[in-house]
Design brief:
Elements (H helix, E strand, L loop, with lengths): L1 E6 L2 E6 L4 H7 L11 H9 L3 H11 L2 H4 L5 H29 L4 H7 L2 H9 L7 E2 L2 H14 L6 E3 L6 E3 L1 H28 L11 H24 L11 H12 L5 H23 L10 H16 L1 H5 L22 H30 L5 H17 L6 E2 L1 H9 L6 H17 L8 H11 L1 H4 L4 H8 L1 H39 L3 E6 L6 E3 L12 E6 L8 H12 L3 H38 L8 H9 L2 H13 L2 E2 L2 E2 L21 H14 L9 E5 L8 H16 L3 E5 L3 H9 L12 E2 L2 H11 L7 E3 L5 E3 L3
Parallel strand pairs: 9-12, 12-13, 13-14
Antiparallel strand pairs: 1-2, 3-6, 4-5, 7-8, 7-9, 10-11, 15-16
Helix pairs in contact: 5-6, 5-8, 5-17, 5-18, 5-19, 7-16, 7-18, 8-9, 8-10, 8-15, 9-15, 9-16, 10-11, 10-19, 10-22, 12-13, 12-19, 15-16, 21-22
Length: 781
Amino acid sequence: MGVEEQRAGKFYVERDVLDELCLDQVARRRTPSTTPPLKDRVKDSLRCSMPKLKRSVLSTLPVLSWLPRYSVRDNGLGDLISGISVGIMHLPQGMAYALLASVPPVFGLYTSFYPVLVYCILGTSRHISIGTFAVISIMIGSVTERLAPDSDFTFLNGTNGTGVLDVTARDAYRVQIAASTTVLSGLFQVLLGMVRFGFVVTYLSEPLVRGYTTGAATHVVISQLKYIFGIHPARFSGPLSQVYILIDICRHLPETNIGTLVVSLVALVVLIVVKELNSCYEKKLPLPIPIELIVIVAATLISYYGNLNSQYDVAVVGEIPRGLKSPSLPDVSLWGTVVGDAFAVAIVGYAINISLGKTFGLKHGYKVDSNQELVALGLSNTVGGFFQCYSVTSSMSRSLIQESTGGRTQVAGVVSSVIVLITVLQLGSLFGELPKAVLSCIVFVNLKGMFKQYLDIPALWKSNTVDLLVWLVTLVCTILLNLDLGLAASIAFSLLTVIFRTQLPRYSILGQVPGTELYLDTDTYEEAKEIPGITIFRSSTTVYYTNAELYLDALQKKSGVDVGKLLTRKKKRDAKQKRKDKKEEKKAKKEAKKQNGVNGHLPNGTVHPEDKVDVEKGSPDLKENRTDIALTDRPTNGQVNWAYEQQWTGLDLGSETGSHGDDAITQTSSTVGEETRGRSSDTHTIILDLSTASFVDTVTVIMLNNIFRDYREIDIDIYLAGCQVCVVEQLSRASFFSESIPKSRLFTTVHDAVLHSLQVQGASDVPIYECGLDMACTTKM
């Protein structure tokens, strides 16, 4: 059946033309394996064995797979140094990001302790640092401030009638709200992980995630401006709330606390300068300078000895309780109110976590299980919620420090938790005089990476304008509609862009590159020439119910064959021909009657045999007329090619006037030539290249059936080419193949379909191509 020779720079192939039936024989198609019944599959899943039990335990508790093989000699020192470095970063970031969540700073330290320990046991990534993160913190903060605004905890002072804010009651309720939201979001993540729903994050494209985090960073900045300037703006919620807050901040700027502003400016300058030095001398410094911790210690000492709170009214952190909180049940009654926010936190937190985890996994050559990561993050949040923590995810800055300082396993996370634990138990109370403005400055400086994402705009403008549109729409929706509605609107818009791109694909007419078996877009390649009489049509995407009608319209437009008009014209012509035949038949009967009346009857009343033959055959005039019609209809292999007849649009072949002048023919042919853009109008074959299709639905099957039926009516052959195996199987299940559409209409390649069409049309020679680069290709029929 086939011969293949290969040598340096050349190949030679000789084979028969392959349709789907021949391909099954040549390639020896396997019999599809039958899927076991559901009952058997359930039994098999419930059946227990030692290897299966071991796999389940190791997949559920990944720590058991790497901890027994842990090498202290190889990994101990690196994990120790890395854990100390990350632990030092946890202290300022935990307290700073707690302000974003609108809870007391000590709860940021709790959040940097409990969830980290849980992830070390259940997580599959070795390098990411779980804990507080700016975007998740601001999402939790939007919930706590909405459900526990300051106005609900303000009461009138009986002495002077002024409003007094009960900070203790407000903070306690906000912690309760944050913990309840965290537990619910953790349960969402665990359930999604158990049903193997880790792929849900694939619907959050990278431009969407980066646009969303950039918009969330804008929320963070606006929320921290009040601490930078030492002012007390009003709180707004709902769409456009950030605009209203910004306007109100500008209105309160004359009330700026000068002491707070000075502290903020000094802290910002020191943080920015030292962090830039860390970046410049990254390769020369064994460890980055822990400037955040240094600034916190220095600011606390200055505030304590300078009495900044009492003399200059600089807001400070306040009393930090020593020790850990005992676990408590979350307030389940709040779940109905925060369910939407909890789900948004679960999805965004997981998206950030898995993208960062897979980045390090690819870099260091290990696998990160997306479903197990979902379970690990969910249990970290669920367990943390019982200890008054708020939602966590991985942090880019801490993860980079953990990797760059030599961390190789999650032992580094355990070491960082120990650092946080020591601080909470012994050192936390020393930071009571720390100015809140310094924590806000730490938040500002750590947002540098997010704001650098604005550089995505020129990059996406050059590479992909649709992704740029997703990025910008996500940014605008996140800023204007807030974090929950903004995320929903962004996902909806992102999915719409996918639908629009499949609804507006590129439709192409393919032509053959001379001397090769390649068929390329004639609009893109000058050397791609159409084969006379054969139209090869291709869509750049899968055809399904949303673009099936567009596919059919593009096929008619590109091929220059308007099936609807041709079928209507054929019906009119058939009806006219039928009327004319009846008229001629009546006329013939009248003539026969006249002849019979004169001399056509024998004595017994029978018709003369010769006259009977005349009646059956018709008059010579009738026979002559039928010959004229057949010539006008231009038969092709005994049938009328109605696509060819489209060039005679302006002619009424059945009219009595007989306007068959040369001018009319020339004018009509010119018009059709313009409509088909130079394509030969005597199309006898259309080949549909379905190589880009990954599936077919019911609408597509119906459309293909209609194409075969309609074009058969106008004597145009339709062939399919390049279908993937899954598409062929779906067509078979949909009963697409039948006596009128056999599998022999489906070909392996476009070239096979072309050669078959040429053979059907009577081509005698088989082309032998010199393909360039010393490549020869021969295909025989």
